[in-house]
Design a protein that fits this description.
The longest helix has 30 residues. The mean pLDDT is about 85. The relative contact order is 0.19. By secondary structure, the chain is mainly alpha-helical. Strand 1 and strand 2 form a beta hairpin. It is built from twelve helices and three strands, in the order H-H-H-E-E-H-E-H-H-H-H-H-H-H-H. This is TIGR04222 domain-containing membrane protein.
């Protein structure tokens, strides 16, 4: 009857993890302020809501490279051409490159993403109810991982219980039936979380996601400089058609 102890452990893991996920989701939903529906997104805001601080850094690098104020080499190095930034985030990029005027693109991306200007942008979006607070997003993601771990633990404990010696042949069906209960609980919780909780694991809140989706398709996928930068903000560097820029970012992401 040792399997009963394993069953209790499985039930406890399933219940506690699912309860934590429910509480994290409720906290995330409660932390989203009302309003924000009439907000018109800037490129930086669309970039942050679509991909977080690194997306903002990528957008700024692409914008400065397209305007010939920054040179992004295929070797993965960024070189300052014009040391005067047009806004706080551009000045953060120049500051991240350093006084020598040249630095690795990967290092510049990370430093820009952690800059005060990007954090201030994030704070404004959170206050407007368009971005998910770091604590809420991290709490929900951690809770989802815990439920997945609990589901795996249930399967492992069930397998151990079924392979224990000394049981009757009919006991296997009984053991499997009892362990199916916590397994169904965890899997059901994950299935519900896929639709109800998943928005809170992204950078944008449901309101922010609606604003991104409301961007005119011609602006996101059209031609011209504004359309290109909007596509980069929403879809990332993969939206860039320039092979030299794509290679520069590809080299940076590979860490060469």
């Amino acid at each position: 009857m040792f399997w009963l102890l394993f069953l209790l452990m499985a039930c406890a893991a399933a219940f506690l993890s699912c309860a934590r996920l429910c509480l994290a989701a409720a906290h995330a939903a409660h932390s989203e302020p009302a309003g924000g529906g009439a907000h018109e997104l800037t490129l930086y805001e669309a970039a942050f809501l679509s991909g977080g601080p690194l997306r903002v850094a990528d957008l700024t690098l692409v914008s400065m490279a397209r305007s010939r104020r920054l040179l992004l080499a295929h070797t993965g190095w960024a070189t300052v051409v014009d040391p005067v930034g047009g806004d706080d985030i551009e000045r953060s990029v120049i500051g991240a490159i350093g006084p020598d005027g040249q630095s690795r693109i990967g290092a510049v991306r990370r430093a820009t993403a952690a800059a005060d200007a990007v954090r201030a942008l994030a704070d404004r979006l959170v206050a407007a109810g368009l971005a998910v607070p770091d604590g809420a997003r991290g709490g929900v993601a951690a809770a989802v991982r815990q439920v997945r771990a609990a589901a795996l633990a249930v399967v492992v404990l069930a397998g151990v219980s079924l392979t224990m010696p000394g049981g009757e042949p009919d006991d296997g069906v009984l053991v499997a039936a009892w362990f199916a209960l916590p397994l169904v609980l965890t899997l059901s919780c994950l299935a519900i979380a896929r639709f109800e909780v998943h928005p809170y694991t992204r950078w944008a809140s449901p309101t922010g996601q609606r604003l991104i989706g409301a961007l005119p398709k011609g602006v996101r996928d059209g031609v011209g400089e504004a359309a290109l930068l909007t596509a980069v903000a929403v879809h990332g560097v993969r939206a860039v058609s320039d092979p030299a820029l794509r290679e520069a970012f590809g080299t940076a992401q590979r860490g060469h």
